[in-house]
Amino acid sequence: STLFSDGMLRLVTVILGVLISVLGTHGFGHHLLDDFMFRKGYTCLNQGSYGSIPHVVYNFSEQVRREQEYNPDLYFRSNLTGSPGSPHYHYLDRSIKAVAGLIGANSSDVVLVENASYGINAVLRSVIRFLGRRKSMLYTDHAYGMVKSTMKLMAGQLPGADSDPDSPFDTPLVQVNISSLLGEGITPAKIVAAVVKALDANPGQVGLASFSHITSVPGLIFPVKQLIDECHKRGVLVLIDGAHAPGQIKINVEELGADFYVGDLHKWLFNPRGSGFIHARPDRQRLLLPSVGDLGPGDTLMQSFFSWQGTVDSSNYAAVPTALEYRQSIGGEAAIYAYIHNLAITAGKQLAELWGTEVMVEDGAMIGAFVNVRVPCTAPCTVNGLTVMQAVWEDNHEFVVPMGAWGAHPEHVWARITAQVYNEVDDYLRFGATVQKVLKTETAART
């Protein structure tokens, strides 16, 4: 006789299938490193800068590239087979729907772009035409460098040159100082208050405001919902730079209500580099134009504008559903967000304890999978002529972690570390010990 009846075996199989679909087949931690392509001996604590992709996603994008090369005409031409779309457009449509599902949007309100930098430039260069002469653009001092550079270009401030009085771009800029708040216990409420103060100091003058959903450095979640609401109360359009949000925290763009939301898919979502999106509210889409003026298929005029940006390798866009399927296989979005958030907080506390320093922010609402820990040295914190970041890399070629004086106190140097599904706490302790080692070397050299 058998231990279980056939009916019982079928029931157990169904239950196991449900558990696997809910909990994933892997869990999180170092064993997931086998899924990725990292060189042996390198530990990634800087997921945010360039991202990383698992083998399964790389292999799929490579498959699409081969499909392109087997017959480029068949791949790109939408009218060759008599069908309404080519493989190129089929992949775009499939990925747009996947992105829309991830960010809580209608697929007709989403377009794919190369990256957040492209998307933000498309928005700023388009919307400026409708702001009205001398309308200001507002941003914070924690905006990404590219956002600041583009806004300055719109203001006629060319890099390395004085303002051009004859420039066709003459939009005034309003910068909100957030860095000073880091020295006095920064909170979401204080960020909102600083922005409201700047808006009310320029009544009726600000036409568009841009905020990071998660700042690049020092890697903090901003209260974008409240900022959007305060701007809309004053008739100000809002552009959210969400480069670091997809894959790090849950997003619902419909609930946020920003006029424009731009994000990257390669930084945290495990999609190949050169993939991002723009979400535009239906009533704002008429304001938006791409850098390349051409028309392709699309459910809306905005999608038609963006669907054909010249001949490009669309394999990066095509991989989005595969990246999301991989994430589901290891536990799903909610489980990933919880793991990387909790790991970031734990790692930050243990690193600060090891160094005898502090974390920049303790409010969990402002932390996703970035955490900033003060390095036990004072600026400029050089080691034998190298920055501490360079010295750590040169020591054992294991870690690359951005470090800089990002707070209110210019003498403080902070390390911005990231947490990802393949990391565990001992990664950060090894990094911390390496920092101590290279700093001790510099101290010994001075004595």
Quaternary state reads single chain
Determine the N-to-C terminus distance.
80 Å
Q: What is the element string, with H for helices and E for strands? A: HHHHHEHEHEHEHEHEEHHHHEEEHEEH
Mean pLDDT comes to 89
Strand tally, please? 12
Helix content: 40-55%
Strand order, largest beta sheet: 1-7-6-5-4-2-3
**Rg estimate, integer Å:** 24 Å
Largest sheet: 7 strands, mixed
User: Can you count the helices?
Assistant: 16
Tell me the fraction of residues in β-strands, as a range: 5-15%
Poorly predicted sequence stretches spanning 5 or more consecutive residues: 1-6, 12-25
Give a structural overview:
The protein is α/β, with parallel strands linked by helices and 447 residues long. The protein has 16 helices and 12 strands. It has helices spanning 6-23, 47-50, 55-70, 72-76, 87-103, 116-127, 145-154, 188-201, 224-233, 253-256, 301-307, 315-318, 320-329, 333-355, 388-396, 425-446, and strands at residues 110-113, 136-140, 173-176, 206-212, 237-242, 260-264, 276-280, 370-378, 382-383, 386-387, 403-404, 412-418. The strands form 3 sheets. It has a 7-stranded mixed sheet with strand order 1-7-6-5-4-2-3, with helices on both faces. A hairpin with a 7-residue loop joins strand 11 (403-404) and strand 12. Helix 8 (188-201) runs parallel beside helix 9. The radius of gyration is 24 Å and the shape is globular. The model is unreliable at 1-6 and 12-25 (pLDDT under 50).
